[in-house]
Design brief:
This protein is an alpha/beta fold. 38% of the residues lie in helices and 17% in strands. The protein has a five-stranded parallel sheet with strand order 2-1-3-4-5, with helices on both faces.
């Protein structure tokens, strides 16, 4: 049995190609009450390299949560989600789709590919910050995630 004293820093992988949205997300997550380390990649190929510890991401930590935009250059978020959820070593990592879309087909496809949540990015910074604070509180305070040893 492992006993932890004090809050554990959580690892978040943000897959976002829009630098402004990535910056807002980082600011919003850092301003919350959860101690976190946010890693940002800009495309699907980099996300999979990060998750599989390949190339420049050979030493990357296993994220506790992936925040995934759908519309990415090259390998898009839909493909990334499918690959994550089909990989036995990655499929237990919660994936939250965080995108500008609120289209029912996008929502249905995301959940059909085992997304853990689907959230539409608000355009207002304050609303975006509140959404991220609630997201972090939910995933890292209210729910139990698999530990490193269990996944």
């Amino acid at each position: 049995m492992t006993v932890t004293t004090g809050p554990r820093q959580v690892e978040i992988l943000l897959v976002e190609d829009n630098p402004a949205d990535a910056e807002l997300a980082v600011i919003g997550l850092k301003s919350g009450k959860i101690l976190n380390d946010i890693h940002v990649v800009e495309d699907g190929e980099s996300a999979m390299d990060f998750l599989r510890n390949q190339g420049e991401y050979a030493e990357a930590p296993k994220p506790d949560l992936v925040l995934l935009d759908l519309n990415l250059p090259g390998m898009d978020g839909r493909e990334v989600l499918r690959e994550i959820k089909q990989d036995d070593s990655l499929k237990t990592i919660p994936v939250v789709v965080l995108t500008t879309s609120s289209a029912p087909p996008d929502i249905a496809e995301a959940y059909g590919n085992y997304a853990n949540s689907f959230m539409t990015k608000p355009v207002d910074f304050d609303q975006f910050s509140k959404l991220l604070e609630g997201l972090a509180d939910y995933w890292f305070t209210l729910v139990h995630l698999p530990s490193e040893a269990e996944s």
